[in-house]
Amino acid sequence: SKVQIRDLYVLDGVWFGQYQQRDGVAIDRDTETSAEGMLYDYEVVPAGVQFDFRAVVDNAEDWQLGLLYAGLNAFVKERLTIGGGTSRGLGLVKLTLAPPKYFGQSHLRDFLTNPTYEGEEAEPEDWLKAFRKRIDDELSSQPNEKGGSDAQTDG
After folding, report:
1. Exposed, middle or buried by CB within 10 Å (0-12, 13-18, 19+), for 127?
2. In which band, very low, low, confident or very high, does the pLDDT at 145 lie, cut at 50, 70 and 90?
3. By CB neighbour count within 10 A (0-12 exposed, 13-18 middle, 19+ buried), where does 65 fall?
């Protein structure tokens, strides 16, 4: 895969290992009532706990970086949830993106020989432009719904 999502660790000093315990009741699908003797508990991480998110992308084209950046922006705008229990208010994520770092071939020497080198800041807007262009190119090469192409001809 070109994208690796690292394990998300809790940031130091923002959580003290306390889970919230929630109660649940299993629903019988046939009767749409609570199932007899099917109470259960589950644990959740409290709201506001912060995690360290890191993604590593290898050998991606600019349009692919734009696709990833657009997807991550859905979490920045709090439009996506993750995990189970989202209909019960769980899984809302607010992502704060730091400026992305870029390591190209020209940076390899610095990366290998300088332990504090962290890459060059990238321009995500360039990636988004490449992604939009890729979408436009794909759409213009597809036949329209009537079976022809979108190109107009004089006839």
Report:
1. buried
2. low
3. buried
